[in-house]
Amino acid sequence: MLIFVLSLLAYLIGSIPFGLLVARVFGKIDIRTVGSGNIGATNVGRVMGFKWFIVVFVLDALKGLLPTLAAKLLLASDLPTLGSMHGATIVGASTIIGHMFPCYLKFKGGKGVATGLGVVFVLAPLASAIAAGTFALSMLIWRTVSISSLLGALAFAVAELLLLKPHPFTRENWALGIFSLLVPGLIIYRHRSNIVRLIRGEEKAFTPKEAADSARSPEPR
């Protein structure tokens, strides 16, 4: 029952659309009507600037990290270590699902990368570090958030399943094993339109508003 209540609360917290709220309060715009229309940090950064990308990314990551960490600590007092880890994994997954399918926005949310990173930082720090490193390296090479997100999700899945080797779906590991397949799969699914654009060669590199404005400005005389 406690896991169910925590998971419900985590879903509601995950559903908070920080990108939409930040854009509305500080940019006086509905982020769903500009750019790609997505409520995530990338679209906010394209429209409002890099600092707002950072703000939304951190807020989205925290709404994944904090409920998962709280569940892990709360459940540790009521359940053995194994049970608390399984419970925290379920709560973390609920937060990510909340971000992707928020009840406040008719279940039309973000793609789950930042929130997912916050969750896996608690559940699987080594695999999350590998995923973050893969994302960063990809951004340095291609400067395309969608490619980096897809590669980061795949890197996490492969790394965590290898770390859980040789039995990722035993009684001890089943929750993390399923999570390591389900969540990266959902992230890839949420990027399906980006994948189509990548195949067509139409996907754009990430250019924050300040950089885009600077590129359009005439050279000083």
User: What's the domain count?
Assistant: 1
Succession of helices and strands: HHHHHHHHHHH
Find the count of extended strands (DSSP E, 2+ residues): 0
> Helix share of residues?
over 70%
Q: What is the end-to-end distance?
A: 69 Å
Q: Mean pLDDT, as a whole number? A: 91
Secondary structural class: mainly alpha
Helices, by number, come to: 11
* Global geometry: globular
Our estimate of the beta-strand percent is under 5%
The description of the largest β-sheet is:
none
Descriptive report:
The chain has one domain (2-206). The N and C termini lie far apart (69 Å). The longest helix is centred in the first third of the chain and has 27 residues, at 50-76. It has eleven helices and no strands. 72% of the residues lie in helices and 0% in strands.
Indicate the topology.
Elements: H1 2-14, H2 18-26, H3 41-48, H4 50-76, H5 81-100, H6 113-123, H7 125-142, H8 145-163, H9 174-190, H10 192-200, H11 209-216
Helix pairs in contact: 1-4, 1-5, 2-3, 2-4, 3-4, 4-5, 4-6, 5-6, 5-9, 6-7, 7-8, 8-9
